[in-house]
Amino acid sequence: MTIEHDVKSLDLATGGRYRIDWAEQEMPVLRAIRERFVREKPLQGVRVSACLHVTTETANLMHTLQAGGADVVLCASNPLSTQDDVAAALVAHYEIPVFAIKGEDNDTYYEHIKAALDHQPNITMDDGADLVGTIHKRRRELLDDIIGGTEETTTGVIRLRAMAKDGALAFPVIAVNDSDTKHMFDNRYGTGQSTLDGVIRSTNILLAGRTLVVAGYGWCGKGLAQRARGMGANVIVTEVEPLNALEAVMDGFRVMTMNEAAEVGDIFITVTGDVNVIDVGHFERMKSGAIVANSGHFNVELNLKGLRGMSEGDPRLVRPFVEEYRVKGRPIYVLGEGRLINLAAAEGHPASVMDMSFANQALAAEHMLRNGSDMSPQVYRIPEDVDKEIARIKLEAMGIHIDKLTSEQETYLNQWEEGT
Questions:
Q1: How much is the average pLDDT of 40-50?
Q2: What is the arithmetic mean of pLDDT over 283-302?
Q3: Total domains present in the chain
Q4: What residues contact residue 68 under an 8 Å CB cut-off, 6+ apart?
Q5: What's the CA gap between 298 and 339, in Å, rounded?
Q6: 117 and 19 in one domain?
């Protein structure tokens, strides 16, 4: 194999190819874009460095970009999110350089980011802004060749907006996460289902009758709370934003502080994007056998350093992806090392919802190539007409038809003279 790569084993490639093909059946929007890309080659000769979760759905995105003429390199955006058979298949069957191994240590993770950036990208594609952050901190010589980037997740968008506000961002980035066909569906339905999938796979517990605490009531938190309730859990929501908290109350959930929730919760899941959402004081209040997981992008949502400092001895692995800490003689269980539980212990979002998210990524890359030279170093939403077109194609693929405004209705909506 002459293609540069660092994956677990190319022997896994055949199984990975089968799973990529399986996911592709559930991704009709991306498939339609790929068919156009094959004909038009809108990304011909463009170097794309992508730092994304290496899953079957991501593989179909990489295939689509490649079909559009892009020269693509992929690395993982989380040390535990790589599906090793998929990484192998991308190298062996699609001839795409991949640098990702599930469970890689922190040094290897950043070596893989370096390898992706050595590709000298024209377009970056991030899930958490690690490529953009590394370029600005340590690889500024690459800036001259960069047209722009795209960002997949809420955490990354928050980072990028902070950079733009400080005047530090050196090139434009499209916030794919802000597209309605991304955050309203991927975050709510994808995170909601896949997070519980990861918790159940790693623990094999029954959710019905348990008290489950959801930290954060953004789109991810809404989906998670709704699905947990649907499986019989008694759901508590913690929030810092008054409007989000009020919405959770109106949706029928109990809302309280994390200090209060810590004493009654059986399962805790963070989806905020912030640091130390579950802190030392909360761990101290938890009852024996509490289960703690994170489905926000980074493991900083759980103060694991503080937990280690207060625990009796080293944690022990009692099941795959389940570590037991002892606090004052009580066990507390942390899932997936505090990393994204839906990818650490499960397979991430279902392909049918990632279909829209990655359609946004593909079209955002095309839009950036066409318009990047006229865009300032800011964070942008994808154009509304592109967002709506993705929704239209998705509905069409599902066999669903909707009404169209008549000319009379359009006229009425665009005038002000007619009153009651």
A1: 98
A2: 96
A3: 2
A4: 34, 37, 38, 40, 41, 42, 43, 44, 362, 366
A5: 6
A6: yes
Beta bridge partners of 215: 238, 270
Q: Say if CB 247 and CB 268 are below 8 A apart.
A: no
Q: Domain range for residue 302?
A: 190-344
What beta strand segments (E) does 284-380 contain? 290-294, 316-319, 322-327, 330-335, 379-380
Q: What is the pLDDT of residues 182-218, one digit of tens each?
A: 999 999 999 999 999 999 999 999 999 999 999 999 9
Strands 290-294 and 71-76, how do they pair? unpaired
pTM for the whole structure: 0.92
CB atoms within 10 A of CB 251: 15
d(CA 55, CA 33): 19
In the predicted model, is pLDDT for residue 91 greater than 70? Answer: yes
Calculate helix-pair angle for 13-24, 84-94, nearest 10 degrees: 90
Task: Give counts: helices (H), strands (E), the chain.
Answer: 18, 15
Considering the domain architecture, whether residues 54 and 75 belong to the same structural domain is answered as yes
Task: Pick the more confident residue, 170 or 420.
Answer: 170
Given a contact cutoff of 8 angstroms between Cβ atoms, the answer to whether 186 and 354 are in contact is yes
CA within 13 Å, CB half, 389:
12
Is 412 part of any domain?
no
List the beta bridge partners of residue 125: 50, 150
With 0-12 / 13-18 / 19 or more C-beta atoms within 10 angstroms meaning exposed / middle / buried, residue 411 is exposed
Which one-letter amino acid corresponds to residue 85?
D
The C-alpha atoms of residue 349 and residue 321 are separated, in whole angstroms, by 18
Segment 372-396, tens digit of pLDDT: 999 999 999 999 999 999 999 999 9
**CA distances (Å), 308 to each of 146, 165, 263, 324, in order?**
41, 36, 20, 11
Query: Computed over its alpha carbons, how large is the radius of gyration of the chain?
Result: 22
Residue carrying structure tokens 């493991």: 299
Of the candidates 85, 87, 105, 67, the residue with the CA atom closest to the CA atom of residue 4:
87
Residues 227, 141 share a domain:
no
> What pLDDT does residue 2 have?
76
- What is the residue whose two structure tokens read 């390898």? 115
The confidence band for 298, taking pLDDT boundaries of 50, 70 and 90, is: confident
As a whole number, mean pLDDT of residues 65-82 equals 97
- What is the number of residues in the chain? 420
Is there a single domain that holds both residue 325 and residue 364? no
At 257, list the tokens.
């502080």
Give strand pairing partners of 255. 237
Q: Where are the beta strands (DSSP E) in 163-203?
A: 173-175
